[in-house]
Amino acid sequence: MPGTVEPRLLRGLRDLMPAEMHARQWIIDTVRRVYETYGYVPLGTPALEFLDILRGTAGEESEKQLFEVAGPEETRLGLRFDQTVALARVVAQYPDVPRPFRRYQVAPVWRCDNPYEKRGRFREFIQFDIDAVGVESEVADVEMITAMCDVMAAFGAAGPAGRPLPFRVRVSSRRVLNLLLPYADIAPERAPDVFRVLDKLDKLGAEKVRLELTTGYKDESGSPVPGLGFSGSQVDRIERFLAIRAPRRTDVLAQVADLFRDVPGAAAELEPLARMSAQLAALGYGDDVVVYDVSIARGLAYYTGTVFETELLELPEFGSVCSGGRYDDLVLRFLGERVPAVGTSVGVDRLLVALTELDRVPPAVRRKATAQVLVTTFDKSLMDEYVAMTYELRRAGINTELYLGTEKRVGKQIRYADQYDIPVVVVCGSDEKARGEVQLKDMSVGRRLTAEVKDREQWKAERPGQFNVPRTELVSAVQRLLRVIGGGST
RNA sequence: GCCGGUGUAGCUCAGUUGGAUAGAGCGCUUGACUGUGGAUCAAGAGGUCCCCGGUUCGACCCCGGGCGCCGGCACCA
Fold first, then answer.
1. What is the average per-residue pLDDT within A119-136?
2. From start to end of A51-116, where are the E strands?
3. Which of A's residues 386-405 have CB atoms within 7 A of nucleic strand B?
4. Window A109-128, strand B contacts by Cβ < 7 Å
């Protein structure tokens, strides 16, 4: 039809239909329960920020991914790409907020990069952050790591019984990475380039990392990857660093200490990591769930200390579902005062994709309805009665929908309940009304029988899962039925 | 940004070596059944064949350009 607007979405943006939204809310609820056990408090900030607030915090790459928005009166705005920058702004803007300020925030963020939905990468997605601002102690870093572990454990417990969710948090430190610079005689301004390449070790392998550090190479698509032009002895030292790897955290630290034994101040930088490891161990977070891995650098430019990311062992190629680190200088931009902070972020939508892929989202979570009961409107002259029944059920705490469509035939209304997976249907026509009864229909019975019943007459004769109860017992009978069938409420 | 693939009904896709009114399955609507979901049967609605230009008597098909989508790479908070 000419003149109509084609309904469409920008690449990487999605509509989430009710079942998908229920699943997302399940993720959020589960994470929030864990975060609140740690005592974090909620914060909300706008999706839009001034461009100069967003810019210059997270490095060149992030700026390329910024969604710019035209504001009124020539103001230049952007959609937030994370929640941490806004948190730093809030801390600077409200100096009377008592510190430590430990907040959680769950909200969409926007990044204009290439979406890849199979790996849970979108241009608009929900992140669920916790951050502790004004905290120097590495106990806060430990808290971040254990919170990540506890979140993963919660999803293991919520999934299919007896199947814990295997995961691993990999931890490193920018301060330890920085020791590599004097050790390998690398100028400080080259550090971001070097760290970016180190981070690729897992994905590219040692050979390509070596090439990228020296002469560069052409990748599979023929695009040139520029080399960083380091000398052979520099690359040798970088590779010796990258070779550090051990299942036990204490062994990793020992190897780092040995490698950097001649670097001034190295021992002092390693002490906090040693204390963290001991604490983690004392709390029951062993070498199997938290590993030290010096190749973790993370791209985000604002990290200054500990960095960590979480991977699901059953989806090794998927990437991190939860990551973060310490950023002691982010507030400095706004306040001129150094405020130490550490935080971590669950990629809610990414985690949902992963758990779906692993078939670990309980089916009941992905429901299409919130209603437990549909009251049909069979006979319009009885409408007052239908409304009354609906509110009786609602006031008893039962999620109830009154059929408000135009369809008169009760069969179509039942079909509507079927399409939305509403588990119980109330039918009351003039016959029932005259007898002082209502009819309850357990939808699951018909669904179960549908495979067996071949003949329509038989189907009609059986009227599966239906029974009548006195009108006065409507609420108690529905409650009983919902208990028996498990109700669809959460 | 690079490489490859692809674009036909709401969805999944067939098709025409360039020829007249463009097809299937699923889904949707209606009815058989005006008081009951499924199945069955019947009927119906639904298309600028991605866009622009070119070649041709004639283009959904061939050619050129563009755009979208999918996959891979790069990048990734």
1. 92
2. 68-70, 76-79, 101-110
3. none
4. 109, 111, 113-118, 121
CATH superfamily, domain at A7-166+313-368:
Bira Bifunctional Protein; Domain 2 (3.30.930.10)
Position A3 pLDDT exceeds 60: no
**Nucleotides in chain B near protein beta carbons (<7 Å):** 1-3, 33-40, 47, 68-77
Q: Is the CB of A251 under 7 A from strand B?
A: no
What confidence tens digit (pLDDT) does each residue in A367-419 have?
Answer: 889 999 999 998 889 999 999 999 999 999 999 999 998 888 898 999 999 88
Pick left, alpha or beta for residue A77 (phi over 0 → left; psi -120 to 50 → alpha; otherwise beta). Answer: beta
| A422 CA vs B40 C1’ separation (Å) | 26
Domain with CATH 3.30.930.10 in chain A: 7-166+313-368
Distance A15 CA to B63 C1' (A): 39
pTM of this structure = 0.91
Contact A230, A213 (CB under 8 A): yes
Residue extent(s) of CATH 3.40.50.800 domains in chain A: 373-485
- Provide the ipTM: 0.82
Q: Name the fold adopted by A373-485.
A: Rossmann fold (3.40.50)
Alpha-carbon torsion angle A445, A451, A453, A457, nearest 10: 80
